[in-house]
TrEMBL record:
<keyword id="KW-0732">Signal</keyword>
<dbReference type="GO" id="GO:0004806">
    <property type="term" value="F:triacylglycerol lipase activity"/>
</dbReference>
<dbReference type="Pfam" id="PF03583">
    <property type="entry name" value="LIP"/>
</dbReference>
<dbReference type="GO" id="GO:0016042">
    <property type="term" value="P:lipid catabolic process"/>
</dbReference>
<protein>
    <submittedName>
        <fullName>Lipase</fullName>
    </submittedName>
</protein>
<feature type="signal peptide">
    <location>
        <begin position="1"/>
        <end position="21"/>
    </location>
</feature>
<dbReference type="InterPro" id="IPR029058">
    <property type="entry name" value="AB_hydrolase_fold"/>
</dbReference>
<dbReference type="InterPro" id="IPR005152">
    <property type="entry name" value="Lipase_secreted"/>
</dbReference>
Amino acid sequence: MPGVLASIGIAAGMLAGAALAAGAHSASGAGERAGTLLTVAPVNRVLELPHAARTSLITYLSEDAHGRKIVVSGTVSVPKGTAPAGGWPVISWAHGTTGVADACAPSASFPGGPVSDYVDLASAMLDSWVARGYAIAATDYEGLGTPGIHPYMNGRSEANTVEDIVTAARQWNHDIGTRWAVVGHSQGGAAALFTATQAGRRTSKLKLVAAVAMAPGGYGLAQTMEYIVAHPEDKAAIAFLPVILLGAQAAEPSLNIESMLTPAGTRLINAGRVQCLSDLREVASSMEGSQIFVNADVTALKTYLQTQDIVNTRPVVPVMFAQGETDALVPLANTDKIVEMTCRQKKVPVNYRRYPGTDHRGVLKAAEQDVADYLDKLLRPGRTQAPANNCPT
């Protein structure tokens, strides 16, 4: 295993070894390029999309935030029937927050598991798109299901893994085409915006046509700690804290998050190393925001988090935003501001849909048909209708 693959061979082997025991095979001709397909294995039956001809668990090469090669896992699905001219169009799915531990990888989901509620909800939506003739590529992101801690909300890492799984999927099934869109929710909504920002910079073989950001997170990320101290009763926010801090340290190891924490805060962070968001909510339910931090210098941490805020995104492909009006995790006002910012850039058409009476997860079902209709106008062979733009004029 030559070159850079030798340096990550152990990582690939750890995951591939387990996969091969379940009937996987290694891809032939593995090279050193991002997007190289490494292994293919059957998925847990719960992850099979009913309208897909085939769904597989894969590993592939990507790049982290510093340009180093990494092994990433994910699932890929292809529709039934005969592919259209040019191949199946692709939706690369960027999932919402699950945690930073390996158990939180969507591809590791199982009935009753820590991420099953969210994965089942998302899978129903993805299956509806497969039924319409879209291939699905669903990355786990860096560090979820593969060695290392997931660098949560790192825009470059997430965008790389979202893009590279499309390249890998085309090696898995040669009927998959080059035209694709990214659709993301929550954390993945931010990933979609960062992906739309770097479109065309890394490969000329793929054509990113559009991005869809559903309840995109990451606005005001650097103010998380101040918010938690000021709102100690917000247990939902406290549950996200270990995910944010561990993710930041994974991307920037020089950040000494332990020095910022009380013993209670350290216990919360240690729980985040092994538990997923669903379990962290239970841990956080007995904590107060004022109990977590010591009077430490958080300048470096805040500086890093500011670089990952979605206010830094500059999409270069059309964008659709979808937002539930009763979302308590990603407030409507935040998405309104990001839409306004993107409109002011006047770079691309922006389509914004708001859904009354819809919460954070409810937007997946509420926007499902609108997202499909939006993408049909752009991704279907021979249908490149200009996307609707409802920015204020």
